[in-house]
Amino acid sequence: MPPSPRHKNKTLTTLMAAALGGIGLHRFYLHGLRDRLGWLHVLSIPLSLGLMSARPQAPQLFTALPLVLSVLIGCLEALVIGLTPDDKWDARHNAGSGRQSESHWILAVILVLTVGLGAMGLIALLARSFDLLFTGGAFG
Questions:
Q1: Residues 13-37: pLDDT tens digits?
Q2: What is the pTM of this model?
């Protein structure tokens, strides 16, 4: 991959991955429109909608599972991006920009919120899955 002359902000990328990671916006910011994993994130939306329309009687958690997993993967990617040391980030994404990244306190806030929301989402996914699988949805 040739170095990009445009400086890519680690904090902005982390925020995009945390907030819009389910649609892969952070992947396109980093790697451009040729990123296959970014398109896989985008594909989760029509795939989930197609499953919902094909199986309207099925629990929405299962038909929307591609999108739910894409959002959780986006949270995980936000943590990986945010916890990458600045020098490693610059070597990988800003080799030709001539600027150096400097993480600030806002990145720590984004990471803490991402951990909290990601953990709540994962716990909710597990709880609802067990409810649907073992009780047939008796608790909701």
A1: 999 999 999 999 999 999 999 999 9
A2: 0.87
| CB under 8 A, 24+ apart: contacts of 132-139 | 132/59, 132/61, 132/62, 137/59
Identity of residue 39:
W
pLDDT digit string, tens, across residues 46-72: 999 999 999 999 888 889 999 999 999
d(CA 42, CA 73): 13
What's the gap between Cα 30 and its chain centre? 13
| Helix/strand/coil for 92 | helix
What is the C-alpha to C-alpha distance for residues 95 and 11, in angstroms, rounded to an integer? Answer: 17
- Residue 30 to residues 33, 40, 118: CA-CA distances in angstroms? 9, 15, 22
Residue 96 DSSP symbol:
T
